[in-house]
C-alpha cells in the first residue's frame, strides 16, 4: 500500500512540475502554433509593407496624405507601420514564447494578440488595395487633363 502511495505522490509531483514549467504536450503545441503564426504574420506584414512602399514610390507619393481625414503622409505611415512591426515581431517576443516561461494566461494573451495581428494584416491588405485603386484613379485623371 505504501508503494502505491509513493508512486501516486511521485506521479503527482511530476504532473505538477510539468504543469508549472509548461511542458505538457498541449502547451508545447500551443507555443509552436503561436511561433508559427507569429512568423507567418511577420512575413505577410513585411510583404505588404514592401508592396505599399513600391506603390508609393512608383507614384512618387511620399509627401501625399495617406488618409483623407489625416495629415499623415505616406512616408510617415510607412515609418509607423515599420515601428509597430519591430515591436510586435521583435526577437524578444519570439524568445518569450520559445522559452516556455509563459503561464496559461500569458499564452492566452498571445493567442488574442495574434488574432489581432491577423486582423491588422487583413486591414492593411484592404488598405493597400484601396490605395492602388486611388492611385489608378488619380493617374487616369492626371492623364485625361
What is the share of helical residues? over 70%
Tell me, what's the shape?
rod-shaped
Q: Give the domain tally.
A: 1
Query: Class by helix and strand content?
Result: mainly alpha
Global Rg? 24 Å
* H/I helix tally: 5
Mean pLDDT: 80
Low-confidence segments? none
Distance between the termini: 95 Å
Notes on the structure:
The structure is a single chain. With 145 residues, the chain is mainly α. The chain has one domain. It contains five helices and no strands. It is rod-shaped and about 85 Å long.
How would you briefly describe this protein structure?
The chain has 145 residues and is mainly alpha-helical. 81% of the residues lie in helices and 0% in strands.
Question: What descriptors fit this protein?
Answer:
145 residues; single chain; 81% helix; mainly alpha
Helices, strands, pairings?
Layout: H1 2-20, H2 25-58, H3 74-88, H4 91-99, H5 104-144
Helix pairs in contact: 2-3, 2-5
Amino acid at each position: 500500500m505504501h508503494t502505491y502511495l509513493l508512486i501516486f505522490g511521485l506521479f503527482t509531483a511530476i504532473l505538477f512540475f510539468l504543469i508549472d514549467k509548461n511542458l505538457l504536450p498541449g502547451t508545447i503545441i500551443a507555443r509552436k502554433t503561436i511561433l508559427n503564426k507569429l512568423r507567418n504574420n511577420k512575413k505577410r506584414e513585411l510583404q505588404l509593407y514592401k508592396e505599399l512602399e513600391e506603390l508609393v514610390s512608383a507614384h512618387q507619393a511620399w509627401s501625399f496624405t495617406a488618409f483623407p481625414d489625416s495629415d499623415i503622409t505616406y512616408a510617415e505611415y510607412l515609418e509607423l507601420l515599420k515601428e509597430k512591426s519591430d515591436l510586435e515581431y521583435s526577437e524578444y517576443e519570439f524568445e518569450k514564447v520559445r522559452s516556455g516561461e509563459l503561464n496559461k494566461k500569458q499564452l492566452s494573451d498571445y493567442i488574442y494578440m495574434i488574432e489581432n495581428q491577423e486582423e491588422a494584416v487583413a486591414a492593411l491588405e484592404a488598405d493597400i488595395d484601396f490605395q492602388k485603386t486611388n492611385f489608378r484613379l488619380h493617374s487616369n485623371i492626371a492623364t485625361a487633363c
